[in-house]
Amino acid sequence: MNMVEGKRVNVVVTNGIIMALYLALTILVTPVASGAIQFRISESLNHLVVFNRKYLWGIFGGVVVYNAIFGMGWLDVVFGGGQTLLALSLTAILQNVVKNTKVRLALNVVFFSASMFLIALMLNLTAQWPFWPTYGWTALSEAIIMTVSAPIMYYLNQRLHFAKQI
């Protein structure tokens, strides 16, 4: 195996581990992982993309698999996966534009919280929950998890150097 193939394998394996970790952390809090108020501690892994955009696929895969197994049907896979992919992509795009890690972490919180409109829309379509209150609760719960976990992930990065792992 040459060096390029080895790096590709490393990226795939690392993303597989992230996906499994996302699933395990979400399953751990299943009673509060879905609905209008979502406290998925696994959402803290969304911050990994701030440090290295190659982590995007592990997080996205974890969301899609969890929603496919435990979610509210195929719409949850589409909307939940879409929300995650949108927010992660916005953060990944900024990796070379915004050099300050703390600013990227803050923007990641904003992207994830604001994009919860997709989850509110899905809950409106599937469960007829009113859009605006649902959006308010999903965005607030996402903002809380993401805000609390941002400094933790920043600290972990100083010790583990996420950008250099893959």
What best-fitting shape do the alpha-carbon axes yield?
globular
User: Given the structure, what is the number of helices?
Assistant: 8
Helix/strand structural class: mainly alpha
Give the percentage of residues in beta strands.
under 5%
- Structurally, the number of domains stands at 1
CATH topology: Arp2/3 complex 21 kDa subunit ARPC3
Number of E-type strands: 0
Provide the CATH architecture.
Orthogonal Bundle
Low-confidence stretches: none
Helix content estimate: over 70%
Assigned CATH class: Mainly Alpha
The largest sheet, given as strand count, sense and whether it forms a barrel, is: none
N-C termini distance: 17 Å
From the alpha carbons, calculate the radius of gyration and give it in angstroms: 16 Å
Q: What sequence of helices (H) and strands (E) makes up the elements?
A: HHHHHHHH
Quote the average pLDDT: 96
Please provide a written account of the structure.
This protein is mainly α and 166 residues long. The protein has a single domain, classed as Arp2/3 complex 21 kDa subunit ARPC3. It has eight helices and no strands. It is globular, with a radius of gyration of 16 Å. The model has no long low-confidence stretch (mean pLDDT 96).
